[in-house]
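Rotation project, supervised by the postdoc (A.L.). Task for the rotation student: set up a whole-complex structure prediction and record inputs and outputs verbatim in this book. Inputs entered:
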Amino acid sequence: MYRVLRRAGIILLTLLIVSFMVFLLQDLSLGDSSSYLLSEEAGEEEISLYRESMNLDDPFPVRYCSFLVSFIRGNWGVSANGLDIKETVMRRIPATLSLTIFSIALAVVISVPLSVFAVRNRKIGKAVSLFSILIMSLPSFMIAVFLVMIFSVHLKIFPPAGYISIGESFSGFLRTMFLPSFTLSLLHSSLYLRIFRKALDENLAKPFSMAMAAMGMKKKDLVMKSAFAPSLPVLASLLAGSFATAASGSAVTETIFAIPGIGSLLVDAALTRDTALSGILIIFIALAVSLMSAVAELLFFILDPRTRRR
Amino acid sequence: MKKLRIGLLMLFVLVIFAVLVSGDSARDARFLPPSASHPLGTDALGHDIISRIGSGMLVSFAVACPATLISALGGLLLSFGFAGRKFPSTSVIAAADSMRSLPPIILALFFNALSGPGIMKIVIALSIGNIPFIARMCHSRIAVLRTEGPAVAAECLGVGRVRIFISHIIPHLLPYLLLQCVSIFSSSILTEASLSYLGCGVPPQLPSLGSMLADARSTVLVHPGPAVYPAVFLLLIGISMELIARGIEERLG
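Outputs recorded:
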């Protein structure tokens, strides 16, 4: 129970800190919007009228509170090119959400068996270490470019860019989603491979594994039967931490693969200097990341039999 | 041991190389093949590739060094707080946990939207993004160190807080902090490259490995050189940092 409450508190705190930072910085950098929204001939009276209508004369805390309340109520304002921010963001959620979930699932599928093999066999272990060092030292956009070179330019299996929504055609959706998800999943799995493998090794050295080894269990079975389950909580916290990586990775991957998601929207907002849109977006992203990691962590917490019994 | 040495040597050679070849050269014809005056040829705008790579690497280091230093300093200051008894550790850690959901790239993109690209902004974004992780690590280490023999004994003898911190906490914290700093340094370099690739990194007039790759994107199939060489150097920096990190990790056991 304490864990759930703490998590909820952290989500709330995320909202408060990030929205405060966004509002403060927007306030500092924009200054007074009356100076550029009204024409130059605007008289004193017009300016003061405008300021009153926008509540610009209120003290900072009051304006911050009204900003926060309107954010929570879903009144997110209008972006620089006149579109409703909430509608734009909502339209772009499905692509990013499916990219995030696909990539994390793919990373688990890649890295869990590989870590098990790596622990069982020293040669495979060395190869896996080399692979994760290589991926760790490459920025995600270079991985994306390499994958496009291999799969789209030479083998011509997957399209190099573009997005087909799941409603239009399911196979098209899978084909366009594969390369971006694979890029992101390599990013996740380099970390998973390192940490999950270490956890497996540590659990193999624990007394319960040694007892099983002493009773004559082969090392091959030992990994799966004795060390695997106790290592799962480590995987859980890795998964919970992945959503932040996914957020920053999706900004890059979505832009490269021309996927209309939240990340590419933020990059567009940054390039066009859309202050209002980018502010709302980073509050949204921070909130989504902390919510998703909370859900992932609590899910594994519930699944862990050791905590269930207490 | 071997990994650490090879990594440090690689990094040293790369830095020396960057300093030696960096510089502004006059523009030449486009896409010249490698020659004596242009060891790696020229790019789409006629810039000498090798000198641009050198300058780009220096820009990367100019972003990563202050970001790492600020993060480390922030971590040390917070550690001093964690080591004390009256410090509100729980609330600081809660704040750090909530800040962890805002990765540096996302923050840097927001800063870019506010007032355009700039080195200082990337450094600030990286520091804000990394301090929560350092804080978390320091907190969990210090929670152990503070209750262990030497620190408790010194406290009972009436030794001051500052001295306990310097002589009993820092020496045991430093290796872990160093390891974290290495990974912050390399992730800073990767973040800067990614941001510059997206066009939101260092100002466009400065050379950067990321923006070189972005510029070469359209001609990569015909002239692979301008894209491949910066990529190779980015990879070399990354590998040297990974080797250093693994080396320190092995030494820590």
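Student's summary: Chain B is about 75% helix and 0% strand.
Supervisor addendum: The domain at 2-22+46-252 of chain B is CATH 1.10.3720.10 (MetI-like fold).
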